[in-house]
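The pair is listed for reference:
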Amino acid sequence: MPNVVKGSKQERMVVVPYRPLRRLLAVLTMLALLLGGGLAGHWAGVRDAGNAGTRLGDLQQQLATLEQENAGLRQELAMLERSSAMDKQVNGEIQSTVADLREYIASLEQDVQYYRQAMTSEFEDVGLVVGELGLNASTDPRRFHYKLVMRQEEADGQYLNGHVNVVVVGHRDGQPVSIPLRELTDDEDQLDIRLRFRYFQNIEGDLVLPPEFTPEQIEISAVATAPMAKSVSKSYDWIIEGE
């Protein structure tokens, strides 16, 4: 019987079979688990990196698409801006054309008025008659448009031959002055303006008043040599239509 110290606690001994192969197997199993976990983590990281690369590629493709769309929108905006500028230019040209047409229509209406007056006036005389005289202002305060209508009463289809003189009467520097029409306009170069017509003849153009000259009247003297000899004269006050 072994020696036992009285009063001390005695531990029981267990006899275990010695199996070195099992311990080695356990160690290898543990290492395999650790290695598997490491490999799993590594492949997970690789997979995540691959997914991130794919997402980056997708984002780059989306960015390229957006940049292309942006370029297209900028081009479309530039085209719209050019179109707007062209529309403004065309609109301005249309407005200018409309203004010209209105002016032309007003001139035609004035001609119609002259012709109606010439054709519907009561004939108090025969042969050569001084008809209507009109004066219109322009943008130049010294330039005016004139129109004189000479007509023949009871013409019977025969041509009237003769001439007419037009003189503008006024004052300059306090002195009376008479200026022939040919000195005021480029439309007439003769003092005696030739007349040849059956029913009426228009004499019109633009005249420019000299500086410091104030017009008061227009004197008209006309002579017919055929179909009957006749002389007529008439004076008109310097009145601008529309004023």
Observations:
- DSSP finds one helix and eight strands in the chain.
- The domain at 125-237 is CATH 2.60.40.2420 (Immunoglobulin-like).
- The helical segments are 20-120.
